[in-house]
Amino acid sequence: MSTPTTPNVRPTVAYSPHSVGRNGGVVRIGNCSGFSGDRRSAIREILDGDPVDVIVGDYLAEVTMASMVQRTAAGHPRLWSDEFAIQLEGNLAEILDRGIKVVVNAGGFDPAGLAAQVRASAAALGRTASVAHVAGDNLLGRLEELTAAGEQFSHLDTGKPLPDWGLTPTSANAYLGGWGIAAALTTGADVVICPRVTDASLVVGAAAWWHSWTPTDLDALAGAVVAGHIIECGPQVTGGNFSGFTAIPGMLAPGFPIAEIAADGSCVITKHAGQGGAVTTDTVTAQLLYEIQGPLYLNPDVTADLRTVHVEEAGPDRVAVHGATGSAPSPTTKVAITAMAGWENTVEAYLCGLDIDAKAALVEAQARAAWADSGVRLHRVDRIGTAGEDPATLESATVTLRFVGRADDAEPLAPKRFYRALASTILGSIPGFHCDSHHPRASKPSPVVAYWPGLVSCAVLQETVVLDDGTTLSVVQPQRAEVPVLESDVAPEPAPVADTVRVPLGRVAHARCGDKGGNSNIGIWVAPEAWDWLRAELSVARFRALCAESAGLEVTRHEFPLLRAVHFVVHGNLGTGASDNGRLDALGKSVAEYLRARHVDVPTHLLDLSCAAGLSAAPDSPDRQERTELG
Predict the structure, then answer these.
(1) End-to-end alpha-carbon separation of the chain, Å?
(2) Residue 557 forms beta bridges with which residues?
(3) pTM of the model
(4) Burial 70-100 (b: 16+ CB within 10 A, else e)
(5) What is the pLDDT of residues 485-494, one digit of tens each?
(6) How crowded is the C-beta side of 374, counted as CA atoms within 13 Å?
(7) How far apart are CA 83 and CA 551, in angstroms?
(8) How far apart, in whole angstroms, are the C-alpha atoms of residue 562 and residue 155?
(9) How distant is the alpha carbon of residue 423 from its chain centre?
(10) d(CA 498, CA 478)
């Protein structure tokens, strides 16, 4: 890992969050990125759209951090998000002219280096930009010291201590909160570059600065966490990845969202007028249920209880969100720890027509024999798709057999050995057998980055803010308390129903899923009239029957009555995390749509609801784009 380009450090000054702020009205915070690779035009779209006070962007998903580990191993000179630098290019002068603050977690492993680049970009324009960066998340160099002092970095799900992993960590980044951001903005920073802060902390820090909150303003902070969680993934809350997307206009390019956050933490979620997509109670509910582990949403600044959150329409493309309650944050925070764990390559074979089971069995047996003694370990074999009955096209008769191979080094997985070994069986194998010789990963092995979500005491963090002149501000941690572990909610007994019809669950329910390390979360919600039926229908046992992904795994279940949602977490179905599981759907993004396609017995009267498939229609808006064939 390269040495961060931190300026000469001057004596540290203690930062007190009681000195935060600028009072007055709501703060309008616009999101420009949900991951490193989101639409590069987003900042330009924001500047062309409705006014905002702060632009925030999330660039550091767990998979992105893993890719930065690979860049480190390859000696890449820039260990931050290039995507942010590209987005900012051409827009920095206007941002400075308009006094818009920018807060991003694009700093990766070198926030100081990205801060220096932003200053240089401003200088090239003949301008001066005050750029601060947050530091203190990187614990790699302290692992031995902290372990000796008693920190176990216990696995978030299994509780096992880090030494049990058996791998040598290559990165260890703690999830920081929002008070460092608030401190930087208080000093007058135009741009704040963050490392691994939580996604919601970008918004929490900006809102705390604007409203002069202190760490004891727990309900307000909880509201900001909710707002930050809702807009953190950009256009997902304006229709992206939404199960009701067919009712959303302008889906060619759904716009980026805005959170208008009031002094009490309540907010209105909206979007830029005239841009694609829509903001409805259902698109907001979808994002509320995305990537959570249950009713208590843990953040380093506050623990937010999502069971008290209300969402309601407040006008066209405007949804009011209020009622969040907060309690003291946990004494621990998550640490994303990674390690190099060998190499991986993938090749796909195709089976067509009849006797698919027998064909798959022979191809797999021949593949295993061809790779025997080659140094390749067959990590997983996935059969994808089903050959159609009386298929109208060749493609509809074709099934994919996907092989994921791993090895200790790259050589056994090079195409001349890995792909060729499979291809050598073609003439002596099944009828119609062919492989994908053009698949990019079949030509280039990729390093495997193993992931360990550990826990560390917040008391050992040394979070600082570094200003332009090298002055550092130490960030004082808030008071903390243990967070209760909530038991699964038990579904009520179903009421007798005289008349039902068997239909896909998605005919009456929306769903959204996400990933948290090796776990999938799935939230399913319905119109008010269907709530009693849903909560009785979706017990843990019934969920297991519907979801093959949950076989043999722990499943937790919670209800969100105000959102009319039942929420499940399937523990371990994503292996050890997206960077290491080898799945085609590595992040479990399609689990919810799979469940919506499963057939259930639904009371007939629920299918007669006017909005049975859409639940809530997008309100009419005079400035909304006309619906296109894609939207």
Answers:
(1) 44
(2) 568
(3) 0.91
(4) bbbeeeeebbbbbbbeebbeebbeebbeeeb
(5) 999 999 999 9
(6) 25
(7) 39
(8) 32
(9) 37
(10) 55
